[in-house]
Amino acid sequence: MAKLIIVSNRLPVKLQEKDGKLNYQTSEGGLATGLGSIYKQKDNLWIGWPGMVIEQKEKQQQIVSDLEGENMYPVFLTETEIKEFYEGFSNETLWPTFHYFSQYAIYEQKLWETYVEVNQKYCEEVMKMASPGDTIWVHDYQLLLLPSMLREQLPDVTIGFFQHIPFPSYEVFRLLPWRKEILEGMLGSDLIGFHTYDDMRHFLSSVNRLIGYGGMHGWINTGNRSLLVDSFPMGIDYEKYASTAASTEVLKREEIFRKNLNAQKIILSIDRLDYSKGIPQRLLAFELFLEQHPEFHEKVTLVMLVVPSRDAVEKYKELKEEVDELVGRINGRYSHINWNPIQYFYRSYPLETLSAFYRMADVALVTPMRDGMNLVCKEYIASKLDQNGVLILSEMAGASKELSDALLINPNDVRQMVDTIYQALTMPEEEQKQHISNMQESLKRYNIHHWVSLFMDRLSYVKLKQMSMATNYLDEASFQELSDSYANSSTRLFFLEYDGALVDYQTKPMMSRPDEDLLQLLDDLSSNPKNRVVVMSSRDKDIMQAWLGHLNIDLIAEHGVWVKQRNTGWQTLLSLIDDWKRDVRPILDLYVDRTPSSFIEEKDYSLVWHYRRVETGLGELRARELVSHLNFLASDSNLQVLDGQMAVEVKVNEVNKGKATSRWLNLLPHDFVLAVGDDWGDEDIFKAMPRDAYTVKVGTAYSVAKFHLDNCAETRRMLERLVEKKTTKKPQKSTL
Fold first, then answer.
1. Is there a contact between 249 and 43 (Cβ–Cβ < 8 Å)?
2. pTM over 0.85
3. Picking from 230-239, 411-420, 562-571, 707-716, which range would have the lowest pLDDT averaged per residue?
4. Which of 130, 426, 600, 688 is at a distance of 20 to 30 A from 458, taking alpha carbons?
């Protein structure tokens, strides 16, 4: 039975060893809470590192056994792997880059190699537990390469990936030396999720600019398969935080804290020690607030909780020293015998203590420089049972896209932060309640369970969509059927698209001239008296004549305007006019002027604007503009606009390859027909074929063809095997 396998860097448990005994403590993280409802069901499984370096085989086996009953499976990492994969590449290369602190990023080949090796180790562990038909959900930046590794080894599984930190803009992401490998790793997924639309947009831009795959409504076609990129804002377990805030234990702690603080107004700040959190900027803003608003002296206290994190690392050590110095300076300048403006705690606290702080805080100051989501602000809102309180939130946090009732600030604008603190401390209670109420309603609906359900439902939708869009792969069994039909037939027709099916697309169209192997293949195929070979192209007839005119084959050029039967001359099937060109040519000239490296190709009865050599992204943008412009023009004329492979073509509506191929089907006897094409313009060919014809699409975009192959090499191999006329052993998919 198919199961769900969750894969993350860490398991949702904290493994500790005391007096030689292993102790397992359940993690309280938001992800663990949200996924707890599904990974414990049936045969589902969570795979990850247990949190300790365990080298003894006996203890490893014990941990495997202990966790099996909890639906968990551990991946054991060495000290070196933790240092180079997790602390090194993940947190000193990816983390700063993805949070827009690329000046802190280190680029060491050794760390990258370990990152690849550990991702491979996770892949091997998943393979031990996975079966065909399973769904695998991979999480976060430590495992960016895992989806493609799994795809290669387990092609029949469904793979989802979710990134919990920001994805940077193309200009920042491109700084990584291993940028293409990272993107290709992620593209092994069926569904890629981010917290915000901005992250999704940045990812799509990087894929387009660095890999060359365009995206339409979030769908990316890699040539072999299609996948979806979407945004899924992560929620919290709202009921958990609301009920905790109402508990007797939390009420007791709140009472104690209020007595100790002896402050009329409390501003709360909770963060892990990290340069992305904006802690120094927050302190500077509070200092300036005290300077500009002396009326709040002895009436307001900033409670700052900083959770220790990697303070042995130099950057974090420097940050800790900076925070300590700022707190000391501000307290030294403003404190009185009964009042310290800042109560600073450098330690972690249990949920009940945090909940008490959430309850008593008049203002929550959540101002990261950059954050994927930030759940602290959501926890604060859920804990405000009396609905009194104000949330000041950085617009650089993913949560700002949902919590529009918060007071949003730019964390780099210290003066704005000062003004906003004053606005928050003086906001009327009625207004506070309205804002908190609105945000609570949103958080209740879009909680962590909704997030999990939404992602899994979307992943199921993607698989159904892929199945409906995809044709069947021409596997060995299908090829044998095709081959037998070929062998048993006496009159055969081949319709073969040139660009994209026999020859790969090139940046310059003239670079796609036929190589010797292709010329030999077409010669061998056409030398059989039973075979009639028709090569089709949107190219100019003179080019087709120069490249293939010496072969004993038929040719179709310019989408079917010109046809040539073997050794006869070229002729047109229709009486066409081309006076429309004088209206369209100036439009194309305008786009050439606006788009460096684009150019126009003029054919007898069509015009083509090429943008293969244009800067990636700009070409696609201009093409969309041009298609829209031309479609408006064509609506009142007899013209058709084709948005093809790095080109936009305008031609007369009556012309298409399907009508041209019908000429051969009507004039020549045939008991075997094979048609091979690659783009949507070739769908006219497939539709014109008889029902018993073999139609093959090159690529995995939606098609009416019966079968598909992945690339030109597979097309050639299929034709070569027909020419060979011998049975071969069952090949792998990539050899066909």
1. no
2. no
3. 562-571
4. 130
